Amino acid sequence: MFRCPVTVLVVSKSFRSVCGLRVEASSTLVRTVSLMAGEPPTKKPAAMGKTIGTHNGNFHCDDALACFLLKLLPEYKDATVVRSRDPAVLDTCDVVVDVGAVYDPATRRYDHHQKSFNETMHSLNP
């Protein structure tokens, strides 16, 4: 087992059209992360802040909108979006949307792809 410290610097400024809306994404992030070979992350360091998990691969309107709306909330305004389908990675996120086959507001897991999902806006807010 070995540790590999990695410093990540991401600077991006982009304009995208998501579901017909023009969205500006701008971020600067400098973070040192210690990775252990062969082990998924078990929990994030306290200084990392909030993370929003969603699936990797092609993005769709539902996951893009979910992440955008969460980042409008004060609690998640500076959150990092983590894109993965790995359950071990998603378990480290504060909130997970559109992936994971779990819909459970108590644990902040919001997927709607399983057959048992039957929530509607009316059932959530009668």
Automatic annotation (TrEMBL):
It holds the Pfam family MYG1_exonuc. GO terms for cellular component: cytoplasm; nucleus. PANTHER family: METAL DEPENDENT HYDROLASE - RELATED, MYG1 EXONUCLEASE. Belongs to the MYG1 family. This is Putative secreted peptide. The lineage of its organism: Eukaryota, Metazoa, Ecdysozoa, Arthropoda, Chelicerata.
